[in-house]
Design a protein that fits this description.
The complex is a heterodimer of chains A (about 120) and B (about 110). In chain A, strands 2, 4, 5, 6, 9, 10 and 11 form a seven-stranded mixed sheet that branches. Chain A has a four-stranded antiparallel sheet with strand order 1-3-8-7, with no helix packed on it. Chain A has about 120 residues and is mainly beta. Chain B is built from no helices and eleven strands. Chain B starts with a strand and ends with a strand. Chain B is an all-beta fold. In chain B, the strands form two sheets. In chain B, strands 2, 4, 5, 9, 10 and 11 form a six-stranded mixed sheet that branches. Chain B has a five-stranded antiparallel sheet with strand order 1-3-8-7-6, with no helix packed on it. At the A-B interface, strand 4, strand 5, strand 9 and strand 10 of A face strand 4, strand 5 and strand 10 of B.
Chain lengths: ~120, ~110
């Protein structure tokens, strides 16, 4: 089956530094990847849609200058948290559209395992 | 404003019994609904889906029911097995498949 690899799974950094998180589709090409953020006991909140070869589309309220997204190839998207602050500490998870469900026609997302960011 | 809600953060069920996980949504434009299952340290994996033109979809031990008038869907697992213990997320999407709205998840514990 389709696999999405996300790295690193955990990262701790100092306030003011930048952190890069990678999301790779291992056995399929993903023209579109999605980045989510999850706070404890809350929903996965869509941050942005990453489009291969073009600029990402950010959701309302997400700072595009803080959360830089690059989709350099059909199998790789990166999220860079710039000048990280403690309030950026969260669980970040990426996904890619893998296939269409035969029954509903809905696009099925394959998720990475997520990255836990802790900013000190 | 959370458009998809899972009001039960946790559920405990005895092995062999039925597990019922509930999900409510507010946006009447949602057309497709999906359930994802998540084990610790792993990403969510797709479980089952339903289109708004149906009110039931069944796949083995898993059945999803959709009540459009009530804006409510539920996932039934029967019989429940200890390996089903995980966090279950429901998600909804409208015409634009770029937008998947997720609930906050329900942690299911199936006791042997």
């Amino acid at each position: 089956g389709a696999v999405v690899s996300q790295h690193p799974s955990r990262v701790i950094c100092k306030s003011g530094t930048s952190v890069k998180i990678e999301c790779r589709s291992l056995d399929f090409q993903a023209t579109t990847m999605f980045w989510y953020r999850q706070f404890p006991k809350q929903s996965l909140m869509l941050m942005a849609t990453s489009n291969e070869g073009s600029k990402a589309t950010y959701e309302q309220g997400v700072e595009k200058d803080k959360f830089l997204i690059n989709h350099a190839s059909l199998t790789l998207s990166t999220l860079t948290v710039t000048s990280a602050h403690p309030e950026d500490s969260s669980f970040y998870i990426c996904s890619a559209r893998d296939r269409t469900d035969a029954f509903s026609g809905a696009n099925v997302l394959t998720f990475g395992a997520g990255s836990r960011l802790t900013v000190l | 404003d959370q458009q998809v809600k899972q009001n039960s953060p946790s559920l405990s069920v005895q092995e062999g019994r039925i597990s019922i996980l509930n999900c409510d949504y507010t946006n009447s434009m949602f057309d497709y609904f999906l359930w994802y299952k998540k084990y610790p340290a792993e990403g969510p994996t797709f479980l089952i889906s339903i289109s708004s033109i149906k009110d039931k979809n069944e796949d083995g031990r898993f059945t999803v029911f959709l009540n459009k008038s009530a804006k409510h869907l539920s996932l039934h697992i029967v019989p429940s097995q200890p390996g089903d213990s995980a966090v279950y997320f429901c998600a909804a999407s409208g015409d634009n498949f770029n937008k998947f709205y997720f609930g906050s998840g329900t942690k299911l514990n199936v006791k042997p």
